Amino acid sequence: MEIASDESIDVSTFEWPAGFYADAGHAGLKADANVDDFGWLVSKTPADAAGVYTTNQFQAAPTALTKQTINLAHQLQAVVMNSGNANSCTGVQGEHDAAVMQQAAADKLGIAANLVGVASTGVIGEVLPVDKITNGIAKLGLTKNDGVTKAVLTTDTHAKTITVKCLIDNQPVTISGFCKGSGMIHPNMATMLGFVTTDAVIAGDQLQHLLSTTVDQTFNQITVDGDTSTNDMVVVMANGQAGNQPLNADHEDYPTFVKAFKLVLSHLAKEIAGDGEGASKLVEVNVTGAYSDHEGQQVAKAIVGSNLVKAMIFGEDANWGRVMQAIGQTDAHVDLNGVGVAINGIQMVTNSLAADYSEEAVAATLKKNVVTIDVDLHAGTAAGTAWGCDLTYKYVQINASYRS
Asked: GO terms for biological process (predicted)?
């Protein structure tokens, strides 16, 4: 995916920031012995940390444990993770297994358990084969490879990664992120599993504020199928190896760091939306003329999350009425006689009425891999953006046989 940058920010080939290491392996959670299904991410020194987590009431044991661990002092030195088993809805046993996984990683690294986060993804309701995990952890090392970015995948078709570099106090600072997410994506305060590392110096409470704010504008603005999982979270670690002056709102270069950080999260969010289960198209909805930013985001997400809109895009059908019904289902302020809708630059609705457009031209543009819907509510000066995908036959096929 092409990413725009400017003179102060450089988008690079994926690499770990200074002082970060990783490794991955096959523990036997997935049937294919050639596919890695667990790994870890490790900082040379304790790092300031922040996280956001699923609001699903059935929050998985590893997610709850990581939240508790980060909330102690906003510090982490490692995150150990697995795919193939969510360790969710597994009761007291699941809590015990998550703690065993945490302690095993801590023992291997020679650090305190309260510096280790835990992340799991996969089938819900099955007990974690924790012996396989602990045996695998014993074999992990500290490398600079990117295997862990693939080891967390489930129904994803590819790894989702990005590295962004910028100058802070004339010192090079690197921010790298990776995530997994393809189905059960309709977040509230987080989505999927996401991991961001940086060598910048930034305190944990400042990092938490930045993460929470940026997640609302990025990960919380994607939807694939309207379902929020039990294991979703995003974790950020900043180990300070770049040696810059501590970043805060008063720092001259803080806006540059914020811009680079948002670029990382927005890229990963769009990667998830475009890789939705069975998806053939990435859908971006841009809303302008909103009464408030909140309402702009609300309307954008309602459109991209509408199954009727998603099916329309998959079917390459110029049925703009489905966009209008999605707008109308929200409680946002709308000029009922002034709404405008365009798809890939073709104006289809003006003043809430059909514009003069070519059905053939719209059908042709809907064949593209990226479909952009622009909506003007004519109710204010605010805006919002959301990302999603089309709804295909393949989505049903994947989820009809997920466990088998």
From this structure: L-arginine biosynthetic process; ornithine biosynthetic process
CATH number of 9-274: 3.60.70.12
Q: Angle CA(383)–CA(303)–CA(272) in degrees, nearest 5?
A: 90
- Predicted pLDDT of residue 400: 62
Predicted local confidence at residue 122, as pLDDT = 87
Q: Please, how many CA atoms are within 13 Å of residue 53, restricted to the half-sphere of its CB?
A: 24
- Terminal alpha carbon distance of the chain: 32
The structural domains of the chain, with segments of one domain joined by +, span 9-274, 282-400
The rounded distance, in Å, linking the Cα atoms of 99 and 92 is: 11
The residue whose two tokens read 């956001």 is 52
Q: Name the pTM for this structure.
A: 0.77
pLDDT, tens only, 166-176: 999 999 999 99
Phi, psi of 287 (to 5 degrees): -110, 130
pLDDT digits (tens, 9 = 90+) for 261-273: 999 998 898 888 7
One CATH from 3.10.20.340, 3.50.50.60, 3.90.550.10, 2.30.110.10 for 282-400: 3.10.20.340
**pLDDT confidence bin for 182, thresholds 50/70/90:** low
Active site residues: 191
DSSP label of 13? S
- Binding-site sequence positions for substrate: 154, 180, 191, 277, 399, 404
* Mean pLDDT of all residues in 50-78: 93
Size of the chain, expressed as the number of residues it contains: 404
- The structure tokens listed for 199 are 């060598």
Q: Taking each helix axis from N to C terminus, what angle separates 254-274 and 204-217, rounded to the nearest 10 degrees?
A: 40
The answer to whether 344 touches 255, Cβ cutoff 8 Å, is no
